[in-house]
């Protein structure tokens, strides 16, 4: 879809919109975690000084989380510790829908433990294992997401091959029956869920952990709550117009505290949020401009970037130029460029390091980012790991 492709361009993020499952680095236990790198088509791990500490011998790898990282050989997934030892042998099926061999899958955020459990696939069904490798929730679901706030979103397909999402607890008990067409992980006590009306049009609202609807499904799209607010769209995301919606921010009562006046918006991080607008008199591909607002809606950094990422460790990655000719650099919270735009893709800073790409590009109808070389830089823009394929 053109819309989804554009959103991939728009937000330079380690994970896509909040309805997509993924893992974020833990702010305590992951401080000295190892970092995935690719060398001649194989994957291993370096430490934060740029030293290779686990040899590049895997077909694909995933980030460490809770002391373990998923790795794959011959499309079977297992888990290793930070010394490179298998703690859980590669017995599980490769996650479907993952990138082809030509795309960098080192930097995806699937295949990780959260709250002591990890999603795995056996015989085409999703279940959960604990950190010993024991299957503690049987592989029975058609889809499943990571645990968050003690609950995980799971889905079955109905006779019409449509997904119906609900939630389980960490014992595998269904606590919210499958009934939603989409569902996000719980965040700050609420989950964004979508229901379809008789015209098959999706509308998003929010439920609590009992399944009670707290904010009625009335939005074209809704993101997770962060810092007490959630970005929602009142129109546009699933309409014929590929970008220009009406995005604003609501509180946990569903009241707009920042009116829906933006073309696009993302969740708050470090007290600021990405917002974008479109010049309706220009070609939308060349007219997108993004900046940042505070929690009162005041514009902190003017709309000037082609795309923008969330702030992390007081830096944010931004794309300067246009969608076809642009480079990514980093700014601080005053909007000053602190690392010059010279990358083709970049991820946010975590513990003083950021992943960056040289030579890659967006391809395909889904807007997947492919190819190039990936490396790591510090906050001075200096490489601690030179880009490698």
Describe what this molecule looks like in 3D:
The protein is built from two helices and 36 strands. With 389 residues, it is mainly beta. It has a domain of 185 residues. The longest helix is centred in the N-terminal third of the chain and has 9 residues. The two termini are 29 Å apart.
Spatial extent as radius of gyration: 20 Å
Broad structural category: mainly beta
Query: β content, as a range?
Result: over 45%
Query: What's the end-to-end separation, in Å?
Result: 29 Å
Average pLDDT level: 85
Give the number of DSSP strands: 36
Report the uncertain regions: 1-9, 12-23, 97-109, 238-243
Task: Name the helicity range.
Answer: under 10%
Q: Outline, from the CA principal axes?
A: globular
Number of helices: 2
Note the main sheet.
4 strands, antiparallel
Main β-sheet, spatial strand arrangement: 4-5-6-7
Fold blueprint:
Elements: H1 2-10, E1 35-39, E2 42-46, E3 52-58, E4 60-65, E5 68-73, E6 76-80, E7 86-93, E8 118-122, E9 125-129, E10 135-141, E11 143-148, E12 151-157, E13 163-169, E14 174-180, E15 182-183, E16 191-196, E17 202-207, E18 213-219, E19 221-222, E20 230-233, E21 247-250, E22 256-262, E23 264-265, E24 273-278, H2 284-287, E25 288-293, E26 299-305, E27 307-308, E28 316-321, E29 326-331, E30 337-343, E31 345-346, E32 354-358, E33 361-363, E34 368-370, E35 373-377, E36 383-388
Keywords:
single chain; 389 residues; mainly beta; four-stranded antiparallel sheet; 49% strand; globular; disordered N terminus
């Amino acid at each position: 879809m053109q819309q989804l492709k554009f959103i991939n361009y728009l937000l330079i993020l380690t994970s896509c919109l909040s309805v997509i499952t993924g893992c974020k680095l833990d702010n305590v236990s992951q401080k000295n975690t190892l970092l995935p790198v690719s060398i001649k088509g194989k994957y291993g791990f370096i430490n934060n000084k740029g030293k290779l500490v686990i040899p590049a011998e895997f077909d694909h790898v995933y980030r460490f989380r809770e002391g373990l990282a998923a790795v794959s050989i011959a499309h079977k997934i297992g888990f290793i510790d930070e010394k490179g030892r298998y703690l859980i042998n590669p017995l599980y099926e490769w996650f479907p829908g993952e990138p082809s061999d030509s795309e960098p899958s080192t930097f995806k955020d699937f295949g990780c433990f959260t709250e002591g459990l990890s999603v795995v696939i056996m015989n085409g069904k999703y279940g959960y294992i604990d950190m010993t490798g024991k299957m503690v929730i049987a592989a029975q679901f058609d889809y499943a997401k990571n645990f968050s706030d003690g609950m995980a979103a799971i889905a079955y397909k109905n006779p019409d091959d449509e997904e119906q999402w609900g939630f389980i607890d960490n014992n595998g008990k269904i606590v919210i029956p499958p009934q939603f067409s989409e569902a996000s992980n719980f965040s700050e006590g609420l989950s964004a869920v979508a229901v379809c009306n008789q015209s098959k049009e999706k509308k998003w609202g929010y439920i609590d952990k009992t399944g009670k609807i707290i904010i009625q499904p009335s939005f074209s799209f809704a993101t997770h709550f962060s810092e007490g607010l959630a970005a929602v769209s009142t129109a546009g995301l699933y309409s014929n117009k590929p970008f220009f919606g009406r995005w604003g921010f609501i509180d946990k009562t569903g009241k707009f505290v920042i009116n829906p006046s933006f073309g696009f918006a993302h969740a708050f991080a470090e007290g600021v949020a990405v917002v974008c607008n479109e010049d309706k008199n220009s070609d939308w591909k060349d007219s997108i401009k993004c900046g940042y607002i505070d929690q009162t809606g005041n514009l902190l950094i003017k709309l000037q970037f082609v795309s923008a990422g969330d702030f992390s460790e007081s830096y944010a990655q931004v794309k300067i130029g246009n969608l076809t000719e642009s480079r990514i650099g980093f700014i601080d919270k005053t909007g000053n460029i602190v690392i010059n735009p010279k990358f083709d893709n970049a991820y946010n800073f975590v513990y003083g390091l950021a992943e960056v790409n040289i030579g890659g590009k967006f391809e395909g109808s889904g807007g997947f980012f492919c190819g190039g070389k990936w490396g790591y830089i510090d906050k001075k823009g200096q490489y601690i790991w030179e880009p490698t394929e």
